[in-house]
Write the structure tokens for this entry.
Amino acid sequence: MKRISRRACAKINLGLDVLGRRADGYHEVRMLMQQVDLYDDLILQKREDGRISMECDREDLPCDETNLCVRAAELMRRQYGLSGGLHIDLTKRIPLAAGLAGGSADAAAVMLGMAELFGLAQDDREAMRRELMRLALQLGADIPYCLMGGTALAEGIGQILTPVRPVLREIPTLIVKPAASVSTGEVYRAFDSCTDCRHPDIDGLLDAVRREAYTDICHLLGNILEDVTIPLHPEIRQLKNVLRNHGADAAMMSGSGPTVFAFFSEEGKMRDCRRKLLEQWEDLSLEGVFLSHTRGGV
């Protein structure tokens, strides 16, 4: 095999709580993560000259050694002593800097694709996946989850993962990226000074997910970082209100923002809401509106 295609799916946070800042500067978190079927496409092709190369349809995305995909490929080559090179062709659909783990998902797809392309996972694919999850921590805390997919509880700095069963499947999910740019560092610095941030009920949300209680899930969605991001970017609150007014059962910011996702009880309601948002595109200063659904795994 000389060529393989992979899809890299985005993630949203159903619940995000920050427990505090550690001595090493990282923040202790407790999050309920959910994969959605908004995805990037990657084509991985072996190179005979041993080089790692990359191209992307987004001109504003660097394709050099700073890109997580290239770093993941180099890590795989070092870890497993691979002599061959690799060319990565990336087609982006997940918006950049959106709080959807697009870069981490792409890196996870490169690692899984290389394991298959170079014959590393012939005996036990799940054992290889677990091994790659441990290895991926060298690159970033979100990548192990992107290798797992589905619904999962993330603790520590996000690297301690517990799969949640049953996974949430096929909930119509509208993902909306405002044009605003949010600095994750600025958000966490603001959080460190926050004295009245409201902690979400992660345990209650986890119980609702396990019971597949859609109404309770919508009620219990919570992201503590909204308390610091929304004052910096009030257009996020406006967008949440618009989504609810247009039929969403729940709307919440994902990660540190600015992206907002909304759950709908019916596919038709989601599509109607998207149509109305497109009519308000300029008034709401939107960058993208994406139809998607929650999904079960990688």
